Amino acid sequence: MVVSFFLAFSFFPVSLLQHEHEGRIRLGQTKAESFTPVTTGVKNETNQENKELATRLDTYVKKQLAMDNFHGTVLVASGDTILLKRGYGYADGKKKIPNAPNQKFAIGSLTKAFTAMAILQLHEQHLLDINQPIERFFPDYPFAKEVTIHHLLTHSSGLPRNRGSKEYEELTLLYPPGTGQNYSNEGYILLGKIIEQVSGMSYGDYITTHIFKPLHMDDSGFDLSRRRVLNKASGHKKIQGVWVALGMDYGSRFSSGGLYSTVEDLYKWDRALYTGKLVSEPLRKRMFTPQMKEYGYGWHIQKEADRIIAEHGGYVLGYSAEIVRDMTSKSVVILLSNHGDTGMKEMAETMLEMVEEAKQTSPEKGAEKKPIL
């Protein structure tokens, strides 16, 4: 399990890029070329080491299910090879519908990485500058002259985690921007409002047009509570020792936690983050550069020896989500659960270590590996 962390980097602003990557998605335009990750199913069937590892991973998840620690879907991959992809438990307990890899789950705060990517796309199109104060967008907010978009992205704005019943005009900062860090859903909600102002699109439509469609994330979208969303897992919460199906207006979480997806689609997202498909390399590197408390743009960043780990969890009523990415080996563990009281970071990190330990005995052991940004 990853236990050591990379100490905070000092703050430095990102200068406005003076170039546009040829062929990158422009506002209002969808990238035409296809993007499909290689799953190498034939390799999985013939590689005995992968089959044995998949069995160990599956056995581990089944133990978690038996202990009532996990109900949902799992995808574990080593690079372009999917080692394990399956569902556990029920998507709908009453109807006895089993979870499957294409089941849709609310992903909670995993949404924040997509919000950050949208901001970086607009920055690269020169439609905003992440170093500028947000006064341009919110002239009536008393803190808008001090807070920059960068502060919102890194949770260093001084805004509270949630504002409760207060209006933004009534908020006071917890500390001067850039001098501390406090995880803030409100900051990421403001980023969504900026995306809408700049693009002229709703937040959900922007993410669908400029991220989901180019990556063929066809089973992902905004607001799982919409009636037209098919094949979605029912959210559950444990009440007096019993899992009870329930839900909420997931769209109310907006750009801080309002998206839904599948493990298969999130694997496409993981693969795309190693490419220039969505944004140029300098901005991708910035996304995964830790600031205060090891938070980049929408990702927790950890460093242990020669490994860089990008991680984020998510929770909304009835659902939990977790993604852990080893950016050195390009392995990934994606967990989506419709039993929302279960924390899954430790489970995901344990599974990632199982993958990495298996690599140490493979023929490729000793090959030099560097983080890929």
UniProtKB/TrEMBL annotation:
Which positions fall inside the Beta-lactamase-related domain?
A: 58-344
Which InterPro entries does the entry mention? AmpC-like (IPR050491), Beta-lactam-related (IPR001466), Beta-lactam/transpept-like (IPR012338)
Q: Keywords of this protein's UniProt record, alphabetized?
A: Hydrolase, Membrane
User: What molecular function terms (GO) are annotated for this protein?
Assistant: hydrolase activity
Gene Ontology cellular-component terms listed: membrane
This protein's source sits in the domain of life called Bacteria
- Protein's UniProt keywords contain Electron transport: no
Q: What is its main location?
A: membrane
Q: Where in the cell is it found?
A: Membrane
User: By what name is this protein known?
Assistant: Serine hydrolase
